[in-house]
Design goal:
single chain, 408 residues, alpha+beta, CBS-domain, 3 domains, 8-stranded antiparallel beta sheet, 15 strands, 41% helix, elongated
């Protein structure tokens, strides 16, 4: 089953809109276009550019329509700067109102662009301007959203399952230490970091396929830098490092794309949860007793709520029939040891295409059912009364979505 406790829309979408409309080049450019007088000796201009660490400078009054590159001045003789000036190509000019998302696209082929104010150039924007606080905050937000999405996808897994998947003793111990220093109610999984969730993701059956990656290697090529990026940005360090501007443009694009990928997977699972709310519960006998769904039994024999639970397909990941049968056998033994009265039932879609062997259980309280559902990797279980079928969250035991027992 899948998690629909929150019906939030994909949170990466508002951030994308921020980069695509609200955040513009004007918000990230810093220094006005530095200009050189046309009659300045070329060697003096070169010395000034070296002192300021500038690669280009405008030639003429401020603002200007021509520029000179430091590399050209390295070959210059004793003449004035105007001899080496070049007109600014219109294809390299952008408006200050250009969205940052479009700028990132242009940066794939250009390491600097000239920013217009009206018809004249007033700024030069380069990869280094991606270190502007507005861009850093946006990228950090995407990384936080990725982490939150991967947590949601793991909601049905017990902490012990997450530890088994993570494997790294040092990372587990680090999370233990973080939890020890926080309030008692802090969940262990909330002490994991982005790098941990990325490792859990690539080792969880079905996730790579769900995200569209053909292999762990392909996944790592896109995401291995995310953990360091998040830590650097969270601690106020720069996004851009020496000679890494082009690489960082690519990484920002990867972060945006992966954030959307993760949350599309979350939304897909929520859709599946809503489909589970239409589950029909039928007995395995002949004739079949319909416990929930159209034509459900009118005479309800239980005075207290009963529960429907399965061990099939933990984490909503498809397992073989043999594996599912073994998991259900283990669950049945535990239910028996705890004093539960078990009736074999099947949870199925109304068209009968999807089915999971399950147990209708009485004599055990909801807290224990919730604990067992989480232990066996189930995101949800059902609570049945004479009037309702309630979809319950395994992690909290709370009712997510009550529906009439005899829903049509």
């Amino acid at each position: 089953m899948a998690d629909t406790r929150s019906h939030r829309t994909n949170p990466s979408k508002p951030l994308d809109r921020l980069l695509e409309s609200t955040l513009t080049v004007a918000d990230i450019v810093s220094t006005p276009f530095w200009c050189i007088k046309p009659d300045m000796p070329a060697q003096d201009a070169l010395a000034a550019m070296n002192a300021h660490s500038f690669d280009v400078g405008g030639v003429g009054p401020d603002p200007t329509r021509s520029f000179v590159h430091r590399d050209d001045l390295l070959k210059a003789g004793t003449g004035p700067v105007s001899l080496y000036a070049k007109p600014i190509d219109a294809s390299l000019c952008i408006e200050k109102s250009l969205p940052v998302a479009t700028l990132l696209q242009l940066f794939k082929n250009n390491d600097r662009l000239f920013v217009l104010d009206g018809n004249l150039v007033r700024w030069v924007v380069t990869h280094a301007d991606l270190d502007a606080p507005a861009v850093s905050v946006a990228v950090l937000s995407f990384l936080v959203i990725i982490e939150a999405g991967m947590k949601e996808l793991a909601n049905g897994l017990h902490d012990s399952q997450i530890k088994d998947t993570l494997k790294s003793k040092s990372r587990i111990q680090k999370a233990d230490g973080v939890q020890a220093g926080r309030p008692h109610e802090t969940r262990w999984r909330d002490c994991l970091q982005l790098v941990d969730w990325l490792n859990i993701c690539k080792r969880t059956p079905g996730h790579l396929e769900e995200f569209g990656y053909p292999s762990i290697r392909a996944f790592e090529q896109d995401t291995d830098a995310f953990g360091d990026m998040r830590n650097d940005l969270a601690h106020g360090r720069q996004l851009i490092t020496t000679n890494s501007g082009k690489k960082m443009v690519d990484r920002i694009a990867q972060v945006r794309a992966f954030s959307d990928t993760v949350w599309r997977a979350v939304e897909h699972r929520r859709t599946r949860w809503e489909q589970y709310a239409d589950t029909v519960i039928v007995g395995s006998g002949d004739p079949q007793t319909i416990y929930a769904g159209p034509s459900a039994i009118e005479e309800w024999e239980y005075s207290k709520p009963v529960y429907v639970i399965t061990a099939w397909n933990p984490g909503s990941v498809w397992m073989s029939e043999e594996r599912n049968a073994a998991n259900n056998a283990a669950l049945r033994k535990i239910l028996g040891r705890r004093g539960g009265l078990v009736v074999d039932v099947v949870g199925q879609s109304q068209d009968g295409i999807w089915q999971e062997d399950s147990f209708l259980v009485s004599g055990i309280d909801g807290h224990q059912i919730s604990e067992l559902a989480a232990l066996f990797g189930q995101l949800a279980y059902f609570e049945l009364t004479k009037d309702e079928m309630r979809v319950c969250d395994s992690a909290t035991g709370q009712v997510v979505e009550p529906v009439p027992l005899r829903k049509r």
